[in-house]
Amino acid sequence: MSRPYTIIVSEVTVDGKLTLKKGVSSKEIMKFMDEDAVRYLHELRAKVDGIMVGAETIRTDNPFLTVRHVEGKNPTRIVPTAMADIPINANILEKDAPTIIFTSEKAPEDKVKNLEEKVEVIRCGDEKVDLVKMMDTLYKRGIKSLIVEGGSRINWEMIRLGLVDEIRIIHMPFVVGGISTPTLVGGEGFNSLDEIVKTKLRAHFMRGNHLITEWEIIFD
Ligand SMILES: NC(=O)c1ccc[n+]([C@@H]2O[C@H](COP(=O)([O-])OP(=O)(O)OC[C@H]3O[C@@H](n4cnc5c(N)ncnc54)[C@H](OP(=O)(O)O)[C@@H]3O)[C@@H](O)[C@H]2O)c1
Hints:
nine-stranded mixed beta sheet; 9 strands; binds NADP nicotinamide-adenine-dinucleotide phosphate
């Protein structure tokens, strides 16, 4: 399989959380982000061919996923959703950047048709989106580099499947707590030390008040 070079990038609190509470938009904690750190994120967006988030992030945060704080081109926006469950007024369906929705064979035809009036929709997988096949499709369509901007569940699936090359963290200098608050990587987690994904710190530096750490995934 060929796939894009893939980087997970996220704003993460000192206690490893992605947002204030389950179901709350991460835009709330991002209000505390320095302009310098926002620019770091947008510089990265401008360098890659594609930007992906899980469908729950679209439903909760309604992000634009465009380059706004620096000069540069918008990457193609990519969202996987098994049942084509994307609100029809979502910002990613607007024309400011290309968008591809990946869905499954199970997605209702009417929902797919409604989305197709605005963006491209690709069925990829029987019951759920087959992320391995999706990555192969993206690569063949010229998306050679990809950032994944969360959330917790899509990060887990991508890491579990060995589809991630780097993790970059914009550290948010506070603690939010909460047992059910999404962390950087959720899902069921690994069951043994044999399975855990090892990383190597490649860089660390400050952008404004934020420590940025860049981690390479070590493939055995
Ligand atoms: N701090 C940050 O940088 C940051 C960034 C992004 C998000 N967030 C926060 O993270 C939270 C959302 O995270 P989340 O973990 O609940 O959801 P998520 O990872 O954003 O999205 C999960 C959804 O992705 C879709 N999906 C499609 N194919 C999939 C597959 N093969 N495997 C897994 N998921 C697949 C599913 O939607 P369907 O049910 O439609 O199939 C699933 O429910 C929000 O609170 C948001 O604010 C924070």
